[in-house]
């Protein structure tokens, strides 16, 4: 019998393939993504990671045992500190000052995603909140793994590719999957259905986030 995460991946395989095929991710891998689009993405992603770290911290506070609490707290630190170091290097490359960064609002798609994660972290059953957090880890890892195989010499976005293809990041994903599978196995069928719905919604929002960056999405009014 498949685990929860195996089943979630199978249910959303078509969506993942659409994510891999997106112009943003194809061009990121082959080095042709424009600097304007990558800059838009990087600023939005840096804002997003603050909210993602908060959602992880809330999930840590709600954890059902001490080991899981530590795991999630460390993941929150990874999101807010380690991954922001990657963003910081690109911010310097693009000449984006802290003041300029702070002045850029979340795009509509980014605000939708962060609001969903925070509302789910605070208000949904804890297993559902955990399922909503998984796509950000897992889909990034698999996009990174795909991109590193297609990246070209001199790719200006190689640091991004290397970060998410790295075995350390994939280890975080493996641990998160194991935790969620443990939680799901102890949950009722009704809660597992909610977990699947939350996972799928977050996976859709991952697609929307990259699509928004490619379109240089702004608020229309």
UniProtKB/TrEMBL annotation:
One of its GO terms (molecular function) is thiaminase activity. CDD domains: TenA_C-like. Signal peptide: none annotated. Pathway: Cofactor biosynthesis; thiamine diphosphate biosynthesis. GO terms for biological process: thiamine biosynthetic process; thiamine diphosphate biosynthetic process. GO terms for cellular component: cytosol. Its EC number is 3.5.99.2. It comes from the Bacteria. Residues 23-215 form the Thiaminase-2/PQQC domain. Keywords: Hydrolase, Thiamine biosynthesis. SUPFAM superfamilies: Heme oxygenase-like. It catalyses: thiamine + H2O = 5-(2-hydroxyethyl)-4-methylthiazole + 4-amino-5-hydroxymethyl-2-methylpyrimidine + H(+); 4-amino-5-aminomethyl-2-methylpyrimidine + H2O = 4-amino-5-hydroxymethyl-2-methylpyrimidine + NH4(+). The keyword Transcription does not apply. Belongs to the TenA family. PANTHER family: BIFUNCTIONAL TH2 PROTEIN (PTHR43198), SI:CH1073-67J19.1-RELATED (PTHR43198:SF2). Catalyzes an amino-pyrimidine hydrolysis reaction at the C5' of the pyrimidine moiety of thiamine compounds, a reaction that is part of a thiamine salvage pathway. This is Aminopyrimidine aminohydrolase.
